[in-house]
Amino acid sequence: MSRKIAFITGSSSGIGAATAKLLASQQYNLILAARRLDALKQLSNELNTQFGISTLVVKLDVRNRKEVEETILGLPVEWQKINVLVNNAGLASGLSSIDEGDIDDWDAMIDTNIKGLLYVTRNVIPLMKNNESGHIINIGSIAAKEVYANGNIYCATKHAVDALNVAMRLELSKFPIKVTAIHPGAVETEFSVVRFHGDKERADKVYEGFENLVADDIADAIWYAISRPAHVNINELTIMPTAQPMASVIHRKN
Fold first, then answer.
1. Is 119 annotated in the active site?
2. Which CATH superfamily is domain 5-239 in?
3. Residue 190: its pLDDT value, please?
4. Cα–Cα distance between 248 and 134 in angstroms, integer?
């Protein structure tokens, strides 16, 4: 395949799907990975029809180490030249103080946001090293830079992503493989619905009274980082709604 290839985790919706659409418009072929196969197939069909690119749909739970290893090691040869990895799969689960936290929520966040990112990256890096180039985009959060009340474990996982981003950049630049972190503030996706375990009414209130970011805003930032010249690496970008100067402050219209 002559087109560049991007591997996007969590690509069935939100930032992942928006990034897939933007990269497809730039004529990237795409490996679309997520747990929801039906949504992936629908997205794949749309992108193939609209942009004429090729897609490989992969049902993948990044928390499952064996599944990740088998999936990436089993990629067809023509899909192994991965130019861009977008580590987008991640979630917040619950919003409680540590003494009242649900340990199942903790495990879900740690297993997805940290271990899942590591499993995928660990298996993609050898392919990029073989290709002597690549770009890893890690989707962090404003929670990687600030800690807010009741966000304890989620913030801790995103702080870990921030540290891993620096470590990857330090270790991989000699190959040369670029590494970039994108840290969004309030983005209206399925994020809050997942955090509140499907309570859409509560989730909708998170975005009331101000103009939040949308998934396309973050996809645009990802493309900016990817599209820089070979000698330029964007170490990190923190992107906030104008109404949100810091994680715990949002100016809402009455």
1. no
2. NAD(P)-binding Rossmann-like Domain (3.40.50.720)
3. 84
4. 35
